Amino acid sequence: MTGRRRWSTEEILDTAAELLRTSDAESFSVRKLAAVLGTDSSSLYRHFRNKTELLRAVADRILLTAMDGYRPEGDWKQRVTALALRLREAFGEQPQLAAAWGRYGSGGAGSRLVMEELLQALRTSGLPDEEVPARYHRIAILLAALIASEAGISAITPTEYEQGMEQFRVAVLGADPERFPALAHFARDIRPLGADRHAAFEEILAAHLAHIEARIP
Hints:
This protein has helices at residues 9-20, 30-37, 41-44, 51-67, 76-92, 98-104, 109-123, 132-154, 158-173, 181-186, 197-214. It is mainly α. The longest helix is centred in the middle third of the chain and has 23 residues, at 132-154.
């Protein structure tokens, strides 16, 4: 009688990432992953203590992918923007994990690389050292929120998108002008949340960096 195959940590993460391409982080479970690998959950718990730790590890690999080949160029705002666009692109390939990254964070090598580059960029901006940690934290929150929001739209099915668009049209174009005068006034120009996400991402980030720049002595 032969024993079950022993899977390496990297093989487990590869399979978890592939499984997450077809399901969201909420429905993902260690039991489902073990079934795909043809093993039992207890063998996976030798590598990861729980589902959260596993999701963090998969998300950290996405951060490593984003940082692969990265070289800081330009001033501090250009560096932060370049890093943000890399993160958005990397999580665009695995949108199901964007929300997991924002919720659980990551303490792996990828996370440290991202943190280091953001902190280094902010130190070159001219901000006093005592303000850098708080500004870093705000940028990290903003990026996690924007990336998770954009990924959420990209992960929905065409049918779900059309249903959402129909509900949007009913809510906006059918608004009672007496009860919702402003909404009725701008109804023809209001766009749904899923529209023009790329431009909105860059514009919001640029506005936040300009706010930071205004505080530099």
